Request: fold
Amino acid sequence: MSDSPWYELEERLEANDVEAVRELFEEWSESDRTHVASHLSTDQLGSLLDVLGAEAGAELIECLPLSQAVSVIETVEPDAAASILAELSSDERADVLGAVAEPEREAILDRTEPATAEDVRALLEYPPDTAGGLMHTEFFSLRSRYTAAEAIDEIRRAAETLSRYSIQYLYAIDDQKRLEGVVPLRSLLLAPPDAEISEIMIADPVSFGALDSLDRLYAMFQEEEFLGAPVVDEAGVLLGVVERAAVDDATIEEAESDHMKSLGIASGEELRSMPSLERSRKRLAWLSINILLNLLGASVIAAYESTLQGAIALAVFLPIISDMSGCSGNQAVAVSLRELSLGVVRPAELLHVLGKEALVGIVNGIALGALLAGVATLWRGDAMLGAVVGMALGINTVLAVSVGGTVPLLIKRMGWDPALASGPILTTLTDVCGFFLTLSFAAAVLV
Amino acid sequence: MSDSPWYELEERLEANDVEAVRELFEEWSESDRTHVASHLSTDQLGSLLDVLGAEAGAELIECLPLSQAVSVIETVEPDAAASILAELSSDERADVLGAVAEPEREAILDRTEPATAEDVRALLEYPPDTAGGLMHTEFFSLRSRYTAAEAIDEIRRAAETLSRYSIQYLYAIDDQKRLEGVVPLRSLLLAPPDAEISEIMIADPVSFGALDSLDRLYAMFQEEEFLGAPVVDEAGVLLGVVERAAVDDATIEEAESDHMKSLGIASGEELRSMPSLERSRKRLAWLSINILLNLLGASVIAAYESTLQGAIALAVFLPIISDMSGCSGNQAVAVSLRELSLGVVRPAELLHVLGKEALVGIVNGIALGALLAGVATLWRGDAMLGAVVGMALGINTVLAVSVGGTVPLLIKRMGWDPALASGPILTTLTDVCGFFLTLSFAAAVLV
Reply:
């Protein structure tokens, strides 16, 4: 693959050379496709979809990040969109359509086969990060009174449909379609032909409600070796199957999204293929709040302007104290967020975390305070100045680490998103305290 | 489960009431076990392992974070450790032993069944984030000239061993143990009894070399629906099987570790169950470098002390300019790290990224510059001061966003870890430039 494969594609698209475009697309690996697609505009992607047709178009959609898949599906004709989406699995189809704007979604669903459209509408009822939002509705169920031989015959008949999905389990149901048990393929393979399904199935299997959370799903799949688990409604009727892989993928996306949010990309997703203005807007929302929060720290400096005038060298150290306290605090935030997600700490255990963090804060406070005191004394030749900035950084580090460790737990208890809110709360507090400590110490001993 | 379940456990441990301890342990879910274990000291965990015995002990080890599992295995008697580790799967056993200190590891391996010990030593040859490091060596292989009926008989004979692992595929090998094909259980189920394995297997299957990277494994499992893939040596001999779940888990851990590293926890892992001094040391390593890098920015302020003396209000705004530029730049860093990991951008595409980021930087620079200029003018009643800080923040934002977007690509091209190095390089540069812009503008117009 050359360095600029999308130029080649653009040329062939502009020449409207359908065969040549398809050939090029077939040559690429999935990672090449993702890479090329990220360099095309939404309109170009739309033309590419039109040229590729439903089946290859669906392959393209599958390798795009969701936001890009949604933009391009909104661009193409509803007929084309409907036939592309028909090629996706039920959960991927629902993910894309769930994010498509209302009018386009309705236009596409009008052109979709009624049973599939109904299935999509049912799946869209569930929030994305729940068992219902993550499950797919392609599964193989059969009555528990069948024999193993009859079950194998059934599978043989459905073999073509089944071959599109990596089915690992069969689901045994009763006459009201309520889940009775799970039959691993291996059990079926090893069973005597006349054994009843009810004898070889795992009875009372682990199952989820449609609204069970991603965290709960992830915890279960960490505990158990299952490759998938059934999702049932309140009456116990089998609704779909959530696979381990879908849960893992959603967990990876959530971790990345939390990281983006902690840096102030409020939606948790940004890619350079999005329009620049939208990208600016998503980042600015948080930056504007942050600049206003910064003013709280600044107003502490303003209150001590005469102190600062008398000891101007302090101005050199204020940004260091702000930055270092923020860094120390954010390390503690990261450890707490990780421990919350691993389940080794729970939101109620404030005192436990405070005790553990205070200890680290004291050690690091002494070390960093001494380091800054030494540097300031040597650089400015003023031991008193060194003592002031070292003391201030030391105490503020203890505070920053203690607050950083506990703030995510507090925010989680209040029901907010700790990834989004912990950082700004922490740095505002550490700025205010850091500047106050430095300048009030200076007012006492320097000026 | 009560709020403080570990007190109950501590009491029973101290009373040496073996039965009561085992009962309590059996009652807990895996998440309870993880949570309780995180509140016990390594010695207490060691006593708990001794009481539980090999099988339940292995269950406990499985639900501990790796670093904690390693400390406790190092604490118990080598005999006990060997019998606990014998209960783990080959990949988990190698993960734990790979992190155990050399002398303890040798003592444990001396007490391990020779075939298992040899297997561990072979697995330890591979770095953790490679196909060899992630694979397990429990798989079911058979000659391709067998018939389906013979294969099913073989499986029946091995059923007890197999039931401990979630086997989905059988591997067809030739007389030199070289991989010839993969047989999904479903194909075996649907095949006529006298069909030869060579007819029903997937010939020339996707396979990995033992040193293939985690990124490559993850990309393949994203492209294909497989639940596992074979790992072979240079001669094509089957070494083990790497499962999708193992690759997903390692990817989740890598994402979390990158996040920790980007905040200055250099090892990429920290839990509060680690000794406080070790936790301090891991955080301090990076903080001490950071404080020295901060001095570069501070020295710019020091060079302009007379300017600052003449316009002391500037000191109020310097920390804001430092913090806001750092935030804007880190947003761009996060988007680049994500795009690199998704494969939508490649390290060579500096100019492409620069073009895209500069645009966002200009829009956000104008917006944030105008906001700060307005605030400063209103607050201090000095339009010239507002113009200086607004201009400086605006220009520095363009710079921070452009540098933030491109620095991870540059670092990756140089073969370093962009998660670890991007942040400090970025903020040092934005501090130096931000302070220089503010103070040189002020020197020109204010003083």
Residues 350-380 of chain B form the longest helix (31 residues). Chain B has a mean pLDDT of 89.
